[in-house]
Amino acid sequence: MTGTVLENLSGRKLAVLISFLLLCQLVCFLIGGLVAPMPANAQNILGTVCKDTTKVKNDTTKWFYNRGKGKCESVDLAQSDLSETDIVFAFQMPTPRESETFDYSRWQQNLIGVLQMDIRYHSQMEIKPHSTLVIDARLAYRNKDDPDDGWKLYTQSVEKRVLDCDIEIKSEDYLYNCTAMPLFELGSLYHDYYLLNIRLPVDKPDMNTHIGHVQDMWVTVINQNGGFTKVWLSLKTIFFPGIVGILIWFWHRIHLLQRKPVLLEEMLLTLGIALCILDLPIEYLTLLFDLPFMLLLSDIRQGFFYASLFSFWVVFAGEHMLIQEVKTKNSLKKYWKHLSAVILGCVSLFIFDMCERGIQLRNPFYSIWVTELGTNLALSFIILAGISTGMYFMFLSFMIWQVFINISKKRQSLPAMCSVRRLHYEGIIYRFKFLMLATMICAAMTVIGFILGQVAEGQWKWNDNIELEYTSAFFTGVYGMWNIYIFALLVLYAPSHKRWPANETNADTQILSEEIEFNRLPIERSEISSLTSFINKATVD
Amino acid sequence: MGLQDFETWSNFSFTRKSCSTSRGLTAHQRRICRRHLDHMPTVSGGVRMGIEECKHQFRSRRWNCSIREGGPVFGALTLIASRETAFTHAIMSAGISLAISRSCSDGRISSCGCSTATRPKHLHSDWVWGGCAENLEYGYKFAEGFVDVRERERKVKRGSLEQGRQLMNRHNNEAGRRAVIKLSRVTCKCHGVSGSCSLITFWHQLASFREIGDYLREKYDSATEVSVSRRGKLRVGNPGFGVPTALDLVYLEESPNYCLKNETLGSLGTTGRECTRTSNGVESCTILCCGRGYNTKKMVTKERCECKFHWCCQVECNTCVKTEEIYTCK
C-alpha cells in the first residue's frame, strides 16, 4: 500500500468532497433549526386538592382526578378542616387546551416529572433546611377507548425527597423558594393519559411535620416533542444506511490488500460500528411496543460511541508518532494507559446510569440523589468519570504535542531525504494535520454550540418572531457533524488504489512495487533507524 | 378596566346573558366574555384577588383602596388619573393574568390557548409536533386582550387628556402583567444523556400574589408623573427623571387630598381610621389623621399565639389575652 485515499486525492476532488460534506452539515443544521420544534416541552400542572372520603387509603383501584365523569370533590386547602390523610393532590396529564382533550402520542417518547411545592412562610413555623418530605405517589394510565374512570395502576411507591427551601424576604404570605425535586421518569410514553395521585402521609409522628404550610403542589411534566422525534428519527434513518454502506466499502478495500488490517484500520472500523449502533433507528419500535428501557439504551449507545471515538483519537495520534521502537507490536496494549482512562470513565458513568435509570425501570419514582449514601455514590462515580476524562485529555494532548515535535524535527530533514521517503513522511504529516484540523473544528463547534445554546436558553423568549429553533439546530447539527466526520474518516483514511508516480526511479522503487505498510515490515524499520541516525548525524554536525 | 367596575366584576355571574347585561363591560369586552365564558369566573376571581391585595397594601395609608360597597358603579376616582388609579389598574391586570395562568395549569379552564397564533386547524397534531406555550404566556396574552381592549376601542382626539388617560391605563396594565412575569421564577431541569445538562428545559414558577402586590406598591411609591404630548405620546413631566420602563407606573395628575372626605374626587377621608401612635411611618397617627388628632380606646383582645402547624390543615394554637390601646383618627 502506498497511502490513504486522502493523500492521493487530487486537490479538486478533495475540494468537491469536502464542500459536499459541508453542504450536508449545513442541511443538518437547517433541518434542526427550521423544521424541528424544540426538543422538549414542559407542561406545568397545578395539583387539584381532592377529598378522599374512603376508609381504606391503600386501595389502588380508587383514583382521584379533576376532569371527566366521576371527578373528585375538590376542596380549598386554605378553608378546609380535613385530616391530612383525606387529602389527595391529583394531577391529570396532559392538560386540555382550546377545549380539546389532548392525549399523549407515542412519538413523544418519554415523560419526566418534576415536583415543586409552594410553601407559604409563617414566622411561627419556619421550615428547617433539608427537611425530609415523604410522598405516597401513585401513577395510573388510561387509554382513549377506556371509560373516564378506567384508570389502571401503572406504578406506586412511597418516596422520600429532600425539601430544600430558602426565603429572601421573610414576610408572611410570601412563598419559599424551593428547589424542584425530581419525581419520576418514564422511559416510554406508551399510554394516552396519565394520572398522578400524591398523598403526604403522616403515619409516624415525625413524618411530614417540618414541611411548613403547603399551599400548592405543582408537577411539571417534560416530554420530548413529537416533531423533534420525527426529525431525529428521519436523520437516523438517512444516516444509518449511509454509514453501513461506507463501512462495507471500507472493509472491502482493506480486504483487497495483501496484508492484515493494521490497528488504526481496526479502530476506524470499531468507530464505524459504534456509529452504526448509535444510528440504528430502533426508536421506531416504541411506536408499537412499550419499551421503558429506551432511555437507558440510548445512554449506553451514546457512551459506547464516545468511548470508541476517544480510543480512536489516542490510537491515531500514537500511530502517527513517526518513531518506531524496535520490535513493537502495534496492539492496543501499547495504549493501555490511555484506554484505561477511557474505560474507567465509561464504566463509572455506566454504573451511575444503571443505578439511576436502571432502577427507574422497576420504579419510575426512584432517585439516587435522595439518600445520603446514594448521593455520595453518584457523586463519586461522576467525579471518577470526570477525573478519567481529565486524565485522558492530558494524555492525548501530551501525545499530540509529541507528534508535533516529531513533525517539526522531520521537517528539517525532509529536503535531504530521497523522494519516496519524503513523500511517505509528507503523507503521514498531511494525514495527521488534516485529521487534527477536522477534529479541532468539530470539537470547537460542539463546545461553542453548547455554550451558545445555554446562553440562548437562559433567556425567556417573548417574541416568537425568531424562526430558528436554536436548541434543535444544535442537536441535529452536532449529530450530523459527527456522522459526517466519521464518514469522511472512513472515506479518506481508507487505503488507496493509487501508486506513487512511477517516474520516481531511484533505489526505493523496489519497495514501492510491493504493498507495504511502512511500520510493519522490517525493511521499513531499518529505513527508519537509518533515518534517525541520519538526523543524529545532522544534529552533531 | 376602570375602578368603577371592579365591584361588578368580582361578583360576576356567569351566563351568556350576564356578558351583555353587565354594566362594567365595553362592547369588545362583551364579545370576549361571550367567546370565553369559561374564563370569566377566573377573571372575576383575579379581580377580587386584586382588590383584596390593594386593600392590604394600602391598609395603613390615607387612601386605603376604598371601593365603596353598594355605592354607584361609576365611582368618582376614575375622574382623576392619579397614582392610585395607576396602582389599581396594575394590580387588577396582574390579578387577572395570574389567575388565568393558574386556572389553565390545573385544567379548570379547558379552553386555554395552545399557541399564540389563532386556533390552528390540526390542533392535536400541532401539540404532538411542538407542544403548547406556557400558561404564564397565555395568562399574559389573555389579560392583555381583555383588559386593554377597553382603552383601545374608543377613538379620541390625539393629544387630548382622554387619550392620555388611555395611554396611561395601558401602560399601567402592562406594568401589572409584566410584574407577574418578572417575579416568576425560572426553574430548569437537565435531562440530557445520563441526566446531564446537554438538554435543559425551562419553565416559570408563579410568585405569590402578595409578592406581586409588594412589588407594585414599590412601583406606586416611585411612580413617574407624565403628560401627554401633542403627537399623542406620553412624555415625562419633569425632565430630571428618567424615562419610565414598561415595569414602572405612570400617572397624569396629582392625587387629591385624601384627608378630607370629597365624594366628587373619590376620597373617603381618614376620619375613623385606625392609626399607630408610636411609629413614624405613613401609618402613624400624625400622618394618617392629618393633624386632626386621635381618640384612644382600651380594648382586650384574644389572639391565637404559639401556633403549631401540621402540613395541611391542622393548626394548634394557644389563646393569648392582650390589652391593647386602639387609636382612631378624629
TrEMBL record, chain A:
<comment type="function">
    <text>A segment polarity gene required for wingless (wg)-dependent patterning processes, acting in both wg-sending cells and wg-target cells. In non-neuronal cells wls directs wg secretion. The wls traffic loop encompasses the Golgi, the cell surface, an endocytic compartment and a retrograde route leading back to the Golgi, and involves clathrin-mediated endocytosis and the retromer complex (a conserved protein complex consisting of Vps35 and Vps26). In neuronal cells (the larval motorneuron NMJ), the wg signal moves across the synapse via the release of wls-containing exosome-like vesicles.</text>
</comment>
<keyword id="KW-1133">Transmembrane helix</keyword>
<keyword id="KW-0812">Transmembrane</keyword>
<feature type="transmembrane region" description="Helical">
    <location>
        <begin position="304"/>
        <end position="323"/>
    </location>
</feature>
<dbReference type="GO" id="GO:0005789">
    <property type="term" value="C:endoplasmic reticulum membrane"/>
</dbReference>
<dbReference type="GO" id="GO:0000139">
    <property type="term" value="C:Golgi membrane"/>
</dbReference>
<comment type="similarity">
    <text>Belongs to the wntless family.</text>
</comment>
<keyword id="KW-0966">Cell projection</keyword>
<feature type="transmembrane region" description="Helical">
    <location>
        <begin position="472"/>
        <end position="494"/>
    </location>
</feature>
<dbReference type="GO" id="GO:0007367">
    <property type="term" value="P:segment polarity determination"/>
</dbReference>
<dbReference type="Pfam" id="PF21883">
    <property type="entry name" value="WLS_GOLD"/>
</dbReference>
<keyword id="KW-0333">Golgi apparatus</keyword>
<keyword id="KW-0217">Developmental protein</keyword>
<keyword id="KW-0879">Wnt signaling pathway</keyword>
<dbReference type="GO" id="GO:0017147">
    <property type="term" value="F:Wnt-protein binding"/>
</dbReference>
<dbReference type="Pfam" id="PF06664">
    <property type="entry name" value="WLS-like_TM"/>
</dbReference>
<feature type="transmembrane region" description="Helical">
    <location>
        <begin position="335"/>
        <end position="352"/>
    </location>
</feature>
<feature type="domain" description="Wntless-like transmembrane">
    <location>
        <begin position="225"/>
        <end position="497"/>
    </location>
</feature>
<keyword id="KW-0770">Synapse</keyword>
<dbReference type="GO" id="GO:0006886">
    <property type="term" value="P:intracellular protein transport"/>
</dbReference>
<dbReference type="GO" id="GO:0016055">
    <property type="term" value="P:Wnt signaling pathway"/>
</dbReference>
<feature type="transmembrane region" description="Helical">
    <location>
        <begin position="428"/>
        <end position="452"/>
    </location>
</feature>
UniProtKB/TrEMBL annotation, chain B:
<dbReference type="GO" id="GO:0005615">
    <property type="term" value="C:extracellular space"/>
</dbReference>
<keyword id="KW-0964">Secreted</keyword>
<keyword id="KW-1015">Disulfide bond</keyword>
<keyword id="KW-0272">Extracellular matrix</keyword>
<dbReference type="GO" id="GO:0060560">
    <property type="term" value="P:developmental growth involved in morphogenesis"/>
</dbReference>
<keyword id="KW-0879">Wnt signaling pathway</keyword>
<dbReference type="GO" id="GO:0007517">
    <property type="term" value="P:muscle organ development"/>
</dbReference>
<dbReference type="GO" id="GO:0060070">
    <property type="term" value="P:canonical Wnt signaling pathway"/>
</dbReference>
<dbReference type="InterPro" id="IPR005817">
    <property type="entry name" value="Wnt"/>
</dbReference>
<protein>
    <recommendedName>
        <fullName>Protein Wnt</fullName>
    </recommendedName>
</protein>
<dbReference type="GO" id="GO:0005109">
    <property type="term" value="F:frizzled binding"/>
</dbReference>
<dbReference type="GO" id="GO:0005125">
    <property type="term" value="F:cytokine activity"/>
</dbReference>
<keyword id="KW-0325">Glycoprotein</keyword>
<dbReference type="GO" id="GO:0030182">
    <property type="term" value="P:neuron differentiation"/>
</dbReference>
<comment type="similarity">
    <text>Belongs to the Wnt family.</text>
</comment>
<keyword id="KW-0217">Developmental protein</keyword>
<keyword id="KW-0449">Lipoprotein</keyword>
<dbReference type="GO" id="GO:0045165">
    <property type="term" value="P:cell fate commitment"/>
</dbReference>
<dbReference type="Pfam" id="PF00110">
    <property type="entry name" value="wnt"/>
</dbReference>
<dbReference type="InterPro" id="IPR043158">
    <property type="entry name" value="Wnt_C"/>
</dbReference>
<comment type="function">
    <text>Ligand for members of the frizzled family of seven transmembrane receptors.</text>
</comment>
<dbReference type="InterPro" id="IPR018161">
    <property type="entry name" value="Wnt_CS"/>
</dbReference>
